[in-house]
Amino acid sequence: MTTTTTTFTFRPLDPLRDGELLHSWVTHPKAAYWMMQDARREEVERAYMEIAADEHHHALLGLGEDGEPAFLMEYYDPAHRELVGLYEPEPGDVGMHFLTPATDTPVHGFTRAVITAVVARLFEDPATRRIVVEPDVENTAVHALNEAVGFVPAGEIQKPEKMALLSFCTRERFERAVAA
Q: In this predicted model, what pLDDT tens digit does every residue of 82-93 receive, in sequence order?
């Protein structure tokens, strides 16, 4: 196992060009919490075409130093998507999801580097005041990652597809967490 010191860049996801790759990521057993296990490639492409056409939801690919896709990042306006009616959004709230693909050669620290890059990318926008996440309550691995970059749980919420742990991260908490 090697250690990562990767610097990531981002580009918009192209649902058709990236469809085969994305399909392999979201249907892998490791991606069970993504809830697309049985999706056909066309269904994955259609879902991401809908995101591409949505002014309140966006998908990006995180690229490694070699320029190759390394992970998926989504962000959304929780006043309009995902969390409508489940909590009281504040100005500057941005919802976030990320997915690292399965690998046969794990790199120590890779997923933490990914979530750090994703949160940093979202806080590049000065209008972003707080990042909101809502992972499955049983996804303890992502809860630990979220905590490591400054997220604080606010409580469980029932979404249509899962019981979720609603958590928030402010810019200040993120900066303190990554400086530690």
A: 899 999 999 999
